[in-house]
Write a structure and sequence with these properties.
- By secondary structure, the chain is mainly β.
- It has 2 domains: 142 residues, no CATH class; 91 residues, Pseudouridine synthase, CATH 3.30.2350.
- Helix content is 13%, strand content 39%.
- The chain is built from 4 helices and 13 strands.
- A 7-stranded mixed β-barrel has the order 1-2-3-4-6-12-13.
- A hairpin with a 7-residue loop joins strand 1 and strand 2.
- The longest helix is centred in the middle third of the chain and has 12 residues.
- The protein is globular, with a radius of gyration of 19 Å.
- The two termini are 30 Å apart.
- The N terminus is likely disordered.
Length: 277
């Protein structure tokens, strides 16, 4: 197995991110803190939340593509510049749509990428997203099960009947953390979401089909005038087993200080503790 090199060159950020390392999450955890690396490139500050010789976890800025063809800048380009590791050696463990921000895992070798894929297949990798929705679910929690069909020409997916040709099953769990009124007087909800499958635009299309489109997501039915064209969906928390050491890692972001996330009560974020991952 070829392993990616570990660089000692870090650009320290004034902000820190909390990382919990546990042997049994239900029994509690001990915390340690690492300074996050950061580098400002083309107006985007890249935060490296965790890094060792095998992989890194970064906070992808909303609006930056995960991967592009040619010379266009993507998250791999930003990570390569910040770490001095060749872009060609990097592999995306999880992908985020261009308008979505948050945590992404970047493997530094094909072997580590394969190890993460094995973890995913054996439920060793959990991902929690936060979404602000236009319109509010009536119940406090639930699950969504649909069949999705992808239209590559339009770069869009839709909910279709079960036996539709080329459709794929999609499942997620959700919990309502809070609800409030936005600046336009409309009710908004803050949801925590756990993906059980990974389909094209899955969270966006399933929430829209349920009647709760993500704030700012005009592609899937929200008519909110969103100048920045980013949507209120965030890859917020990752919980996984280190593919080499076997340690259990829980990495998460601080509550975003941007609209519309910032209008929800601080106690709403504590409700994530009870969300079963």
């Amino acid at each position: 197995m070829t392993l990616g090199p570990e660089s000692n060159e870090f650009h320290e950020s004034t902000q820190e991110r909390s990382i919990s390392k546990t042997n049994n999450r239900k029994a509690g955890s001990t915390s340690f803190r690492k300074k996050a690396s950061s580098k400002i490139l083309s107006g985007n500050q890249l935060e490296i939340i965790f890094r060792d010789r095998y992989f890194c976890v970064v906070n992808k800025p909303a609006g930056v593509p995960a991967q592009t063809q040619g010379k266009d800048q993507d998250i791999l380009s930003l990570v390569s510049t910040a770490t001095n590791i060749a872009k060609q050696k990097m592999h995306l463990v999880n992908r985020l749509d261009q308008p979505v921000g948050g945590l992404m895992i970047i493997a530094f070798s094909g072997g580590i990428h394969a190890a993460f894929e094995n973890l995913r297949r054996n439920n060793g990798l959990a991902k929690i997203y936060l979404a602000v929705t236009s319109d509010v679910p009536q119940s406090q929690s639930g699950s969504l099960h649909n069949y999705l069909l992808r239209d590559g020409r339009l770069n869009k997916s839709s909910v279709v009947p079960e036996k539709t040709a080329d459709s794929r099953s999609a499942s997620l769990k959700w919990k309502k953390l809070d609800q409030t009124v936005g600046t336009d007087g409309k009710e908004l909800a803050l949801l925590a979401i756990k993906l059980e499958t990974g389909r094209h635009h899955q969270i966006r299309v399933q929430l829209a089909a349920a009647g709760w489109p993500i704030w700012g997501d005009r592609k899937y039915g929200d008519n909110q005038n969103n100048i920045k064209r980013n949507i209120a969906l965030l890859s917020y928390l990752l919980y996984f087993i280190h593919p080499v050491s076997g340690e259990k890692l829980e990495l998460k972001l601080k509550p975003p200080e941007i609209y519309p996330f910032e209008i929800f009560s601080q106690t709403a974020w504590q409700a994530l503790i009870d969300f079963d991952i």
